[in-house]
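tool_log.txt
---
The assistant was asked to compare two proteins side by side. It first ran the structure predictor on the initial sequence, then on the second. Raw inputs and outputs are pasted verbatim so the downstream comparison step can read them without reformatting.
(1)
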Amino acid sequence: MNDKYYKTNDLALATALQVVYEPARSIDKTNRSQPEFIFRNSKKLQDYVNKFWRKELLVDPLSYSNELKNIKTRIYE
């Protein structure tokens, strides 16, 4: 992981980060079956990632659903 950017190919994590943090800076679609989501790295982002994996991150279900649709549109456009 580059210190300036955080990269993940986990769709659920990327969606949650877009709800609670900020939109991905970009999506690397080189591998269509596993796109890579690139976020600006920060202590706050790392806290969200850790909470996600500990199953402690809370997100609004409707916002999550809407953001998932948006991400899928970005992947397949």
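(2)
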Amino acid sequence: MTVTAIIEQGDDGWLVGQLKEFPAVIDQGKTLEELKKNLLSGLQFYLEVQADLTTQEYEGRTYTQESLVA
């Protein structure tokens, strides 16, 4: 899977980015490399939280899970 970062230069000199495919993931960095690292870390955290919330929705129900590779 590939994601796209939309990046702007902030007034304070920091780079601010948002993931196009996951708009809830927003972060900043002093350099492009730092911003990219922070965005990927934010994406990992976002996906973990979403997985936990979805698992909670199915609590007490019978279901199966299948792993998919994108």
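---
observation on (2): The first strand starts at residue 5 and ends at 9. The helical segments are 32-57.
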